[in-house]
């Protein structure tokens, strides 16, 4: 018989999400009342608030509690923290909304050097997913609340770092242009997608913790693992497909803008000569 599941949010993530939304709302209202109001559209507010709600849902029940019995639900939790939560937060930001902290962020990026580069974001996203899915570490995270918290903090941090370099709300020296974002995303999504495929077609259950749990929804441990791997691989492919289209259009636009700038510069030099 499946254990009963409790429904409801957890206190810590709910408080964190509330603080994030409150701070953002204050800044959004300030910009909305200024001459820069066009840079604070309602959709950005909705996106940021949805990111906060995603954190509450991901860390609350029933997802969190079901993750103790089903690997596929634990995977849902991880993908929400890794991709959905960071994406919604960053879509809510732009250079005007972030103006009060722009200099501080750029100062930090200069001080930490390589850690603020897209190369590090790429490596952290890929290696973070592969390393935490090593059976010994995954089992440890499932059994220990402290290791579990560290695992979730890692996924959230590398997700924010990874998507920051793709969306980058404020300009910076390491901002990727042209087709570089497509290569950046292609490498990570393929390598993480391969991890999902490995879980999907593994001949045996890799995680002892889930093999020892009561049967839930009639799923065996190997079927549960296969669903979790398929979910990971599918999510990576879907996000990659949508993002490729967006990034391709953005890359073409940036290339056209660069060509126009070069033409104007050549015309100006021609007049001066």
Brief synopsis:
With 273 residues, this protein is an all-alpha fold. The chain has helices at residues 11-32, 42-59, 63-66, 71-91, 99-112, 118-132, 135-143, 145-167, 180-200, 208-211, 221-272. It has one domain.
Number of helices: 11
Strands, total number: 0
Taken together, the total number of domains comes to 1
Multimeric state = single chain
Helix amount, in percent? over 70%
Instruction: State the shape.
Output: globular
Spans where pLDDT lies below 50 across 5 or more residues = none
Mean pLDDT: 88
Task: Sketch the topology as an H/E string, one letter per element.
Answer: HHHHHHHHHHH
Determine Rg (CA atoms, Å). 22 Å
Q: What about the largest sheet?
A: none
Termini distance?
86 Å
Beta-strand percentage range: under 5%
**Class computed from helices, strands and strand pairing:** mainly alpha
Comma- or semicolon-separated keywords:
single chain; 273 residues; mainly alpha; 11 helices; 0% strand
If you had to describe this structure to a student in words, what would you say it looks like?
The protein is globular, with a radius of gyration of 22 Å. It is mainly alpha-helical and 273 residues long. 74% of the residues lie in helices and 0% in strands. The protein has one domain.
């Amino acid at each position: 018989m499946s254990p009963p599941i409790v429904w409801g949010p957890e206190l810590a993530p709910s408080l964190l999400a509330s603080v994030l939304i409150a701070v953002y709302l204050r800044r959004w209202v300030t910009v909305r009342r200024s001459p820069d109001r066009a840079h604070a559209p309602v959709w950005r507010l909705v996106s940021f608030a949805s990111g906060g709600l995603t954190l509450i849902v991901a860390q609350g029940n029933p997802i969190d509690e079901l993750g103790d019995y089903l690997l596929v639900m634990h995977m849902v939790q991880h993908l929400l923290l890794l991709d959905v939560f960071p994406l919604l937060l960053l879509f809510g930001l732009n250079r005007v909304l972030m103006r009060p902290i722009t200099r501080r962020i750029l100062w930090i990026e200069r001080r930490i050097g390589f850690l603020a580069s897209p190369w590090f974001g790429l490596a952290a996203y890929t290696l973070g997913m592969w390393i935490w899915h090593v059976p010994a570490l995954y089992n440890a995270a499932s059994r220990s609340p402290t290791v579990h918290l560290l695992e979730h903090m890692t996924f959230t941090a590398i997700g924010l770092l990874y998507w920051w370099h793709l969306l980058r709300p404020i300009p910076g020296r390491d901002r990727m242009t042209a087709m570089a974002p497509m290569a950046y995303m292609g490498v990570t999504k393929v390598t993480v997608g391969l991890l999902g495929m490995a879980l999907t077609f593994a001949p045996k259950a890799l995680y002892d913790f889930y093999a020892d749990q009561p049967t839930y929804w009639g799923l065996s441990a190997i079927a549960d693992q296969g669903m979790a791997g398929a979910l990971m691989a599918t999510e990576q492919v879907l996000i990659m497909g949508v993002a490729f289209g967006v990034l391709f259009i953005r890359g073409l636009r940036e290339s056209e803008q660069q060509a126009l700038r070069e033409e104007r510069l050549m015309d100006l030099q021609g007049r001066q000569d």
